[in-house]
Amino acid sequence: MQNVSLLFPSYHKTIDPRDPVPGPIPAQTVLEGDDGSIERLHMRYAQNGGLKIVGNRNNITEFLAEDMTWLGSMDFAPLMLGFGFANPTAELDRRISSSISSISSSSSSSSSINRSSSRSSSSSSTTTTTTASETHRRRVGASKLWENGAVETARTPWSGVHVQGVDPTLGNDNIVQHATLRRFGEMGIVASQRSHELGYLHVHDGGLIGLDHACVHADNTFVSCMNYSLPAEQRANCVKIWHHSWVHDCREKGVRGDDYNLNLTMHHLVVWNLGVGRDGADRNDEPTHPPKGAATGLILKGDFNRVWACTVFNTSVYGQGDLCPTTKKLGPAPGRGFPLLPQQNMHSLYLNTAAKLVTGQGGPLYPNATFVAWKGIARLGEAAMKLRDPANFDFRPLAASPLVGAGATHAPEVMPRPDGRAPDVGAYQADDADPWRPGCTFHPTC
Q1: How many Å apart are CA 120 and CA 118, to the nearest integer?
Q2: How far apart are CA 51 and CA 199, in angstroms?
Q3: Considering the entire predicted model, what is its pTM?
Q4: What's the pLDDT at 228?
Q5: Mean pLDDT: which of 95-104, 209-218, 408-417 is highest?
Q6: Whole-number Cα distances in Å, 243 to 171, 416, 436
Q7: In the chain, how long is the greatest CA-to-CA distance?
Q8: Per-residue confidence (pLDDT) for residue 23, from 0 to 100
Q9: How far apart are CA 53 and CA 350, in angstroms?
Q10: Residue (of 156, 111, 350, 390) closest to 270 by Cα position
Q11: Contact (Cβ atoms closer than 8 angstroms) between residue 312 and residue 322
């Protein structure tokens, strides 16, 4: 599918800033199926969710989403991937409907495109904007049933129905590249722990409603590849790669791998202006401007994460730092196979990243914390980094910058230069003749 424009694609009259969202799932636009593709998609003025990818190996290229998700719920974002269709799924609804009564449905409606669908001639994927009444998937107290029979409250949509402790491979290996997301109410991108790739993103001016949000977020909703008791091949699906992106002017966190996060790789990211408010207004962290949040540039919880070649600056001093590799102890997840972590990120590595404020979210910092590698971390602020012209998105270091030649090599993430010189610290090299630029390119406002 190519060249799609959706203005006012869906509407839900109830604004509930915190979970659970009552009643049926509000109308949303869904790409459902496997091996589909959308190229050049523009979405604007969706009061709740934007595009939700349900299935495997789908490819989204050239995507612009703006002025969205004023529902203010973490369950809905301009872009979601790696989740099931609804929370709970239709199958899960049937399993628990006998013991839990449904919450009465709230009104939901959408534009005339709601009842239309388009099928790609070369794939099995369907794109549709659908209402809850059409799908007959009722929210049941925002609850979900784990394989051990316990009912728990969900923050974000659940990603599969467990069968004897293993959930199906729903939502793996989706790819989103060259996307711009801006001016959204809560999260910008919400991804599950399932394998996917996000590249060349420009995400900014987000988190305008509520707290505890991130512009780009890997959720902690449990999926089977987080279960350490399963064979390694069944856990290989928790591999996520985020690269070559700009994330800025978020009211709280920029980029986050949340609790129990595993196998998240971040490289070549520039993240700035977190919690400080656009032009100094609407601050979200300073104690005299409540509510107090927890602004952070990059925060990675869990373990087996890899971070290199990132530039992070101008995070609120009242937050959790420009770079936060969480190192405090993380308790086990009962019934889910996730063990006690005496120190989070013990099997993670951090390389060649410029970030002045570094914290462990209450845990120890290097060298008192253990990592696979901690090299080339430049504790510098924006001015000390001596970047060429960050106000105009030129983040290459000047020749006189202390970032030049200060990086370390570590195979396979950072290989030596052909001429033997040490790499520069940060998302760009000083001698980049054609520096990469993220975001969409197909629309005049990209």
Answers
A1: 7
A2: 17
A3: 0.83
A4: 74
A5: 408-417
A6: 20, 20, 11
A7: 69
A8: 46
A9: 30
A10: 390
A11: yes
